[in-house]
Design a protein that fits this description.
The complex is a heterodimer of chains A (428) and B (175). Chain A is an alpha/beta fold. In chain A, helix 6 packs across helix 9, helix 14 runs antiparallel to helix 15 and helix 15 runs antiparallel to helix 16. The longest helix of chain A has 21 residues. The termini of chain A are far apart. Chain B is an alpha+beta fold and 175 residues long. Chain B has two domains: 79 residues, no CATH class; 78 residues, 3-Layer(aba) Sandwich (Glutaredoxin). Chain B contains seven helices and six strands, in the order ββααααβααβββα. In chain B, the strands form two sheets. In chain B, strands 4-3-5-6 form a four-stranded mixed sheet, with helices on one face. A two-stranded antiparallel sheet of chain B has the order 1-2. In chain B, strand 5 and strand 6 form a beta hairpin. Classes of the chains: A alpha/beta (428), B alpha+beta (175).
């Protein structure tokens, strides 16, 4: 598996191939915790301003501007405030955070400390998916190291800034990647999403102001403070600043984690050259899901010769979305009916059961897919799937419902042949 | 307070029995409480459920009863959380829990062959446990290892870039 930057200097991936990069000593040898020291000589407004200028948008999937999210936290709240890192990486096709957590845990601690200093936060939680237990062990050691060096804990670096760090484990629930479900889970409850508003910035964990950010979002913060928001933004595009990590899996020769400048030109070159091209030379590209499973699937005609740039605007224009940046590449051997069935099973399994459209809708769709796969497809099934997904999209309590609907809607429309061949009654 | 709860088999069972744990384990459980603010001990529920599962093999009634008492919660509160998360086993499983990732990237990179081979070799179907209670095989959703598909986890250990030969070696090494 490849882990490398293309078209830019490695920022997120700087320490990926450095021996013992996960230790405080090596992290500091490479300039680690300098940004924290710099930030501690800045005001809250100056720090938030730099993050705003950077055009950093959330790397978990929703793409919300990070500086704006931070600015929603009330300054004068008498309640304690929290930063919670969302390390519940569970989006199919996404595995970038795993390597950041494994090989560069101090970058996350430093990013969270800078946020904590700016927002007056004294407690930080890092919520890991339960399966990432070995990463919790790595992070616990990193936190211990930082505590021993007075970078975490009471009176950090001799100042009056105090901030404690704790790891917390999930236990196998995709929905806990949704920020309000994550907070329910952090409180020891079932991972049910909560009504917004109030947004977590006002009432989050324990009904206190809380910022929830993805790992890759927070590890970008030390870079932004180091080089300045404007310089960081200029690596990317005006509206999509900086670099982005892309997880690539499926039918390519070199799957891996790639760091690209936002606005990278273009998607075809990325898959067919940078990622080594198709896994089997005699098989053609058929489909790509570029943003983790919860975005529209693209067919080859939408990619080849279309100059789709890799950034928030470029991928929407191209017919999909950045999402979590998880590329799943499929060659012509894949039956898109089958791949869509697979993802619908995923959403059915992961639906939390809280609201009816998502709970019942995903279950119905899986039943229909099972019937189709067993040879009982009917000509009207494609429309039936579209109707059900339409009754889930926008009508569910949280975005999981939309995420379940989009793969089906795009697959039925963009790969009609793959459905048609299964939907002929009695083999007619 | 005597109470009843429905366990995974939907049998109503008496739940008065409270599990006992060694001082070290109780101390380990206490260490989790310090992460959360005063009065928010329920936050420690998921980490503590993992401790119960490790110590007792799965989440059984006596273990849950202990936790309810330990955290000053109702027994139903503990079950409510425990039954939501897929990593908690509500019945006895084998010594080695083989969890094969079945989601899209793994599927197109050969998961069906891997699962088929493991199941043939062990003589069980996904979801079942071998008679000697050594292995349980489960097909699970995305484990965050798509770049090294197909893959699986045994307990918390990752096995990646799988081939039939690697799986055979892995099974031989698990005793």
């Amino acid at each position: 598996m490849e882990i490398k930057a293309i078209g830019c200097d490695p920022l997120q991936l700087k320490l990926m191939h450095v021996k013992d990069g996960h230790t405080l000593k090596v992290y500091e040898e490479h300039g680690g915790y300098k940004s924290l020291r710099k930030a501690m000589n800045m005001t809250s407004d100056e720090i938030i301003d730099e993050v705003k200028k950077s055009s950093l948008r959330g790397r978990g999937g929703a793409g919300f501007p990070t500086g704006m999210k931070w600015s929603f936290v009330p300054r004068d709240s008498p309640k304690p405030k929290y930063i919670v890192c969302n390390a519940d990486e569970s989006e199919p096709g996404t595995f970038k955070d795993r390597y950041l957590l494994e090989r560069d845990p101090h970058a996350l601690i430093e990013g969270m400390l800078i946020g904590a200093f700016a927002l007056g936060v004294e407690t930080c939680y890092i919520y890991f998916r339960g399966e990432y237990k070995y990463l919790i062990d790595i992070m616990d050691r990193a936190i211990e190291e930082a505590e021993a060096a007075n970078l975490v804990g009471e009176n950090i670096l001799g100042s009056d800034f105090t901030c404690n760090f704790y790891t917390h484990t999930g236990a196998g629930a995709y929905i806990c990647g949704e920020e309000t479900a994550l907070l329910s889970s952090l409180e020891g409850e079932r991972g049910h999403p909560r009504m917004k508003p109030p947004f977590p910035a006002v009432e989050g964990v324990y009904a206190c102001p809380t910022v929830v950010n993805n790992v890759e979002t927070l590890t970008a913060v030390p870079q932004i403070i180091e080089m300045g928001g404007e310089a960081w933004q200029q690596i990317g595009t005006e509206k999509s600043g900086g670099t982005k990590l892309w997880s690539v899996s499926g039918h390519v020769k070199k799957p891996g984690v790639y760091e690209l400048p936002m606005g990278y030109d273009d998607m075809e070159k990325f898959i067919l050259e940078d990622c080594g091209g198709m896994l089997r030379d005699d098989k053609k590209l058929k489909a790509v899901i570029p943003g983790g499973s919860s975005v529209y699937i693209m067919n080859a005609d939408q990619i080849i010769g279309k100059r789709v740039t890799l950034d928030f605007e470029g991928l929407v224009e191209g017919g999909s979305a950045v999402g979590s940046g998880g590329f799943i590449v499929m060659d012509e051997t894949v039956d898109v009916m089958d791949s869509t069935k697979n993802l619908t099973e995923f959403y059915k399994h992961e639906s939390c059961g809280w609201c009816t459209p998502c709970r019942e809708g995903t279950d119905w769709m899986v039943k229909i897919f099972n019937r189709i796969a067993a040879g009982g497809g009917r000509p009207e099934d494609a429309q039936l799937l579209l109707d059900i997904s339409d009754n889930i999209e926008g009508k569910s309590f949280c975005p999981l419902g939309d995420a379940a609907a989009w793969p089906i809607q795009s697959a039925v429309k963009r790969f009609p042949e793959d459905f048609k061949k299964h939907l002929l009654r009695d083999g007619q | 307070m005597a109470s009843v709860a429905t366990d995974y088999t939907n049998k109503v069972v008496k739940t008065d029995e409270i599990a006992e744990f060694s001082d070290e384990v109780v101390e380990e459980m206490r260490s989790h409480l310090g992460k959360y603010p005063e009065g928010r001990q329920r936050s420690a529920l998921i980490p503590l459920l993992f401790v119960i599962q490790r110590e007792r093999g799965y989440l059984d009634n006596p273990g849950i009863n202990f936790l309810a008492k330990f955290l000053d919660l109702e027994v139903t509160d503990v079950w409510e959380t425990a039954t939501f998360y897929s990593m908690f086993n509500l019945k006895k499983i084998g010594k080695h829990h083989i969890q094969v990732c079945k989601t899209l990237s793994c599927r197109i990179m050969g998961e069906p062959e891997i699962t088929g081979h493991i199941c043939d070799k062990l003589g069980i179907k996904p979801g079942e446990t071998t008679e000697d209670e050594k292995f349980t095989v489960t097909r699970v959703e995305c484990l965050g290892s798509c770049g090294t598909a197909p893959m699986l986890q045994v307990g918390f250990d990752y096995y990646e870039d799988l081939t039939i030969e690697k799986v055979d070696k892995m099974l031989d090494a698990l005793d």
